[in-house]
Amino acid sequence: MVFSASYIFQQIFNGIVLGSIYALLALGMAVIYGILGLINFAHGALITVGAFCFYFLFSVYHWPFILVIILSVALGGLMGFVLEAIGYRKLRGGPGVSLLITSLGIYIFIENAVKLLVSPQPYAFSMPPFLDKIVSTFITFRLIDLFIIATTITIMICFGVFVKRNKVGIAMRGISESVETARMVGINVNQVIVWSFIVASAIAALTGFMWGSKYGQIAYDMGFMPGVIAFVSIVIGGIGSIPGAVLGGFLIGLIQTFSIGFLPPGWTIYRDAIVFALLIIVLLIKPTGIMGRKESI
């Protein structure tokens, strides 16, 4: 089978769009891991919350787009604050498995709460008409695709500046190296951990809007698989490495897209299996992941 140049570039572009979403999710999860050593599976539930917040405020109540985005992100940050205070704070310093099981329990609770409050049925997701505009040149895309890529790049640049120039960001880097040393030099560890959850959760809520915009529908369980894929991105990229987590997100986005675009039609249903096969291969070749050395954020 021969593919045209435009078709190949189309698939690459599609993979970058999907990878941008995974990279943002992996970034948020990696921030929490860098501080607490916790793979926060509850992160996936915040995707759902962000998506439904946008849906009701924009599609049902017709609030302005920019305001709805801000409120959705703010709700995600608020939930991160609440979850850290209620779910994780008392467990710090305890067995890691306790934090892990708690994060799974929080995800299940939020998923079922959304199912109870809205509906088990999926909802059609709408966005502003200007973002839904289709552009056809050498490749075909919607403006929402450019929005996703541009937003991802902007957030990553801002985060890089944040952890190098902002006091809280610098404190995050210090805590990721050593909590005890950070305390000795006067860093308020509790405050920094809270901010880490707020930032990561706000990013997750924003990706809920991105996911709904890309696929055109949302559901109460929509956050599970993206959350799992974000975790796989971290492992493939290298646990402890935020650049590795981002790289893993883009890599998985490309692989999933290529498995649909270049493999026979019957292979499409195995795109998630292909990702986990890649995970196994990477871990067999390099158990620490692609960029798997311990790194601060």
Describe the model.
By secondary structure, the protein is mostly helical. It has a domain at 19-222. It is 71% helix and 3% strand. The protein has eleven helices and four strands. It has helices spanning 5-36, 43-60, 65-88, 96-117, 143-165, 167-177, 179-184, 189-215, 224-237, 242-261, 271-285, and strands at 123-124, 134-136, 140-142, 217-218. Strands 1-4 form a two-stranded antiparallel sheet. A two-stranded antiparallel sheet has the order 2-3. Strand 2 and strand 3 (140-142) form a beta hairpin. Helix 2 crosses helix 8. It is globular, with a radius of gyration of 19 Å. The protein starts with a helix and ends in a 12-residue tail after the last helix.
| Strand line-up of the largest beta sheet | 1-4
Whole-number average pLDDT? 89
Query: Biggest β-sheet: count, sense, barrel?
Result: 2 strands, antiparallel
**Helix fraction by DSSP (H/I, runs of at least 4):** over 70%
Percent in strands: under 5%
